Amino acid sequence: MSMKTQRRGRLMALGVALALGSVLLSGCMGSAGSATSTGGGATTAPDNGSATLALPTEPANIDPIMMRSISAWNMYYAVFDGLTRIDSAGKIQPGLATEWKSNATQDVWTFTIRKGVTFQDGSALNVSDIVYTYNKILASDKSTNRVAIAMISKVEATDDHTVQFTLKNPFSAWLNQVATIGIVPEKVYEAEGPDKFPDAPVGSGPYKFVSWNHGVDYKVTRNDDYWGDKAKIKDITFSFVGAPDARVTGVESGTLDTAIIPASQVPVFTGASNAKVVEAASNQIAFIGVNTTAGALSNLKVRQAIPLAIDRKSIIDSLLNGYASPTGQPVAKGVTGYVDGFPTPKYDLAAAKKLVADSGYDGSEITLQYASTGGSPTDPEVAQAIAADLGKAGLKIKLVGAEQSSLSLSLANHQITGLYLNAWSPSSMDGDVVVSQLLAGGPEDYARSPEMAQLYLDQQAANADKRADVFKKIWSWNATNVSNVPLWQNTNTYAAASTISWTPAVDGIYRAAEVGRSAK
Amino acid sequence: MSYVIRRILQALVTLFVAVTIAFVLGRMSGKPAALILTEGATAQQIDELNGKLGFNDPILGQYGRYLAGLLHGDFGVSYRNPGQSAIGIILERLPATTTLALLSFAIGLVLAVVAAVLVHITGSHTLRALFVWSGALRSSVPDFFFGVLLVLIFAVGLGWLPSLGYTGLPSFVLPVATIATAQFVLYVRLLDSALSEQTTAEYVRTAYARGKSHAAVVATEMLPNAFLPILTVAGLNLAGLLGGTIIVEQVFSWPGMGVALINAVSQRDFAVVQAGLLVVVLIFVVVNVVVDLLYSLIDPRVKLA
User: Fold this and answer.
1) What's the whole-model pTM score?
2) pLDDT tens per residue across span A347-400
3) CB contact burial B255-284 (16+ within 10 A = b; e otherwise)
4) Contact state of B40 with A20 under an 8 Å Cβ cutoff
5) CA B169 – CA B171 distance, rounded (Å)
6) What is the value of ipTM here, to two decimals?
7) Do B159 and A253 touch (CB under 8 A)?
8) What is the pLDDT of residues A254-296, one digit of tens each?
9) Residue A16 touches chain B, beta carbons under 8 Å
10) Which positions in chain A touch B251 (Cβ < 8 Å)?
11) Separation in Å, CA B155 to CA A31, A249, B126, B152
């Protein structure tokens, strides 16, 4: 019974004539009261079973030397190890390195490497492989990983179990950075090169590569010789499924075991017997970026009206189905740099109106750019709601929609004409990159404040305890000067087969080895 | 012979125009390095990578390099995927696209022929009404919704088939059914009306006068004549299907050329877009030639000159 209403609900959501749909469906669903799952698991022992994890995008390349890509990390974290590991809560854990230390100025980092680790081809992992991996990235012109470690001045093995990095500048987030670099065996990579290595990659991670069927899936199987906790499920398939609807029906039908789904599709799974919804706070912050030099926005009072005029709670409740929590800082809880208790601006239309009136705003048009497609599916509605809120405060907003990659190009090329709606999720789980990108000299920083530039350097040079204070100063500076208006921290919603036991990571990246299945 | 030469020349001009348009439109949409470098790249790093990829050179120079490469059979390299040739990325998608397109097309067309002939041999009004009505129903439902409907019934509800993927025979059933039904209703309508037009033709009366049975007249005399108008439509349709069926590919997460092209466009992977367009244009050209040849085979009056 509940299944029938579910399907109808979906059809309406699809916005298609109900008559046709319900006639066809009621007829067919009548006999389908007991849906059977075709997914594995029920018949095989959990430890030797398989699971299919959906990914919304397929990386163009899966080579830890050449490619830095959020979707590729799902595979990297399965097949490769970094010196450190970011756990699913976003905390740094030992990886290939068992311990580490930095000097007082945070620009020399020394790692003690785990003994007895072997690559999946049976060869021993030596410190030379680690040095090779970093140097190879630095020497590869077209590697997109190079940017992330460009601050390396020298990487060397000081003895058989120690690797030392000398950086060009203090960089307190280094432990997060090395977590994202998967170590490859020098011998294999030199023999195969970037052309062939992705077709038969060798790492030291909890899973071994099986196959990559481009456009379809990436298969791995458990590495029984792994040095750490063995993977829970033997065979994992990462399935590339771009369309959100296909991910939803994929889990419903048992073709997929887990998939990230739009919050609007959560009701589909209410009362489902073979699948459930798993929520997890994400590392993603939605925000309004500001070109503080453009027209009316160069007026501080106009800018200060913006955070007060946006009714975050009502937008979250009505457009995001409640799957977000308001914030006043551009990094998410769980990311280093998040300041507990930092205030979220209160919705105060009267105060916003007064600021606009006091500013001498001449009524000139302010553009608000957003992703009409390719971004978060709710972006267009959210942009409209924000434009309406700002309109109530007396600002004249013009909405300009474009496909996400066009918007990204405008952002990267420093070509924003007013305001823009976007989101940031640092996979390194550290606020450093957020500050540099949005506030301190990056392409999305229009203010170019010397004060902020100094705070950024202070943050890089501060050790862990003092860093929190600097971050607090940075967010306070932003709250006053309004270079950027943080809106909310998004909550990810996943659908999963009811037998799957798994806690989604805060960065939205699968730690495949931790996905388990309960014997049902 | 002159026909062949003319067609080849025409094809070359078409291809040239297509790649030029693709090239110019692509470059107008922006330099891609900012989309490749993810977190926290500086403007200088972005500019440096654009330079290394050749995007800071004057556009005419880039175009010249590209054309020179094409003449040597070099379609360029995907920069999203260092080392992979652009044409390789497209050709890799060809099997999934062609099997889906050919299978759906053939099933749709053959069933349509059988159905239309059956209607005319039996002269059954009920049968015709059934096909016309179900046809109207199917064509009023967009492919994406029909596909989702099939998934909800056969994958989610009944659990008989996988809802997505390109993973073996069962995964073919729903996408093929989606396209084949759309093809079927189109051809059955066209064939039915074409056959109806033939019934009063002189040659049909002559055939009856020679003592041929009704079934034989429909199948061997009327059908080839009725088939001519279908051929053009079918050719264009087939070429369209072979060029990738974006909607169906997305619904079923099918690794076809349509989605690959769309992704390349949004990632500004110009070489792949250009290579993909070349392949699509080539498919259209080849299918058109084949249709012309078939015309002359079926209808002796048509001469290729």
Assistant:
1) 0.81
2) 999 999 999 999 999 999 999 999 988 778 788 999 999 999 999 999 999 999
3) bbbbbbbbbbbbbbbbbbbbbbbbbbbbbb
4) no
5) 5
6) 0.79
7) yes
8) 999 999 998 888 888 988 888 999 999 899 999 999 999 988 9
9) yes
10) 243, 245-246
11) 14, 8, 32, 6
